[in-house]
Design a protein that fits this description.
With 367 residues, the chain is of the alpha+beta class. Helices cover 23% and strands 34% of the residues. The protein is elongated.
Length: 367
């Protein structure tokens, strides 16, 4: 196993700054996911680690070696691409063994490594097929098998599941997680899908416009977002954000909304804001639930009587669209019963799970 260190790496394409000084320590055996919207620099960062993009400034270390000047083949990393990158004229067996073959391994070593990878990924019945005869999920398993046979120091994944349907993506997430548990290798994984990031990562690196916005475990980003962008990017559905202004009030103040309704300042920000400050009041759907369905109905809870405008039944839960502070928000009902549009329900808002963000900077306000 090998650590990866990024020290102020920068990538420029002429006058365009694609990656702006990213620094990151990836521990031995850690599964780190780079996530963010399209164009945020995550794939470019991965390609600089792989040696497929030249580094404009900064250093990349794999283990204790600075690898900036090393070609990809000398970095001992394996990369799995979005488009599989399989040789169409070769069989699965030949694709799996190709990298070892060109590295000069003898036939017996290649055969043993291929058989081992095929057994791990359930490819034994497909070894004599060509890529055109495989499904998308099978092609992706072959691409992962080709990475495995090399026994690299670091596995790099560049949006490997984006071409698969929802069911296959879910299955392949499980397979990738099992592989990491089996080998304990260092993994750097790029995706724009926050569900993949939440389910796979030991730590998430959320990027935006070429910079790192927040680094932490999935639950750290979910429960303690650094700013409003993190709050709305991580989590499904995204966090509700309602514009307001801090007013005077007992118990640490209150937030006044556009429709003149008011809510107490969230627990996490009490004492940290002054009257007149423009803020975003944030809460997740599972912090706004009807009475009788809420995870908690006592303690630091605000009661709200709200009309339901729209519902999205999802089986074990139902998303409820309503309005708070003049803005459309989503609540949630577990163990659901049918709810019709226009029905008025008594909701519990869990104030100790709400957040406050500065309206101008979007930074989280916490004391």
């Amino acid at each position: 196993m090998t650590a990866v260190t990024l020290s102020g790496i920068v990538k420029r394409y002429g006058g365009l700054l694609a990656v702006a000084g990213v620094s990151l320590d990836i521990r031995d055996g850690e599964f780190v996911v780079l996530v963010g919207p399209s164009g945020c620099g995550k794939s470019t960062t991965l390609r600089m680690i792989a040696g497929l993009e030249e580094i404009s400034e900064g250093e990349v270390l794999i283990g204790d070696r600075v690898v900036n000047a090393l070609p990809p083949r000398e970095r001992n990393v394996s990369m799995v691409f979005q488009n599989y990158a399989l040789y169409p004229h070769m069989t699965v067996r030949e694709n799996l063994g190709f990298s070892l073959k060109i590295a000069g391994a003898d036939a017996a070593t290649v055969a043993a490594a291929v058989d081992d990878a095929a057994a791990i990924l359930a490819l034994g019945d497909l070894l004599e097929r060509r890529p055109a005869q495989l499904s998308g999920g099978q092609r992706q398993r072959v691409a992962m098998g080709r990475a495995i046979v090399r026994r690299p120091d670091v596995f790099l994944f560049d949006e490997p599941l984006s071409n698969l349907d929802a069911k296959l993506r879910s299955q392949m997430r499980v397979e990738i997680k099992k592989l990491h548990q089996k080998f304990g290798s260092t993994v750097v994984y790029v995706t724009h899908d926050q569900v993949e990031a939440m389910t796979l990562a030991d730590r998430i690196v959320l990027m935006r416009d070429g910079v790192v916005v927040q680094v932490g475990t999935p639950l750290e980003l979910f429960d303690f977002p650094a700013d409003a962008f993190v709050a709305t990017f991580i989590g499904s559905p995204p966090m509700n954000l309602v514009d307001g202004v801090v007013g005077e009030g007992d118990g640490g103040g209150e937030v006044i909304f556009a429709d003149s309704s008011r809510l107490p300042v969230p627990v996490s920000a009490r004492g940290g804001v002054s009257a007149g400050r423009r803020v975003l009041f944030g809460f997740r759907a599972d912090s706004l639930m009807p009475r009788g369905h809420s995870v908690r109905e006592e303690g630091d809870v605000v009661s709200l009587r709200l009309a339901v405008n729209l519902t999205e039944p999802l089986g074990t839960e139902t998303l409820l669209f309503t309005e708070v502070g003049g803005a459309e928000v989503q609540g949630k009902m577990f163990n659901p019963r049918p709810v019709v549009a226009g029905e008025v329900l008594d909701f519990c808002l869990l104030l100790d799970r709400c957040h406050l963000f500065d309206a101008e900077t979007s930074a989280a306000i916490r004391v």
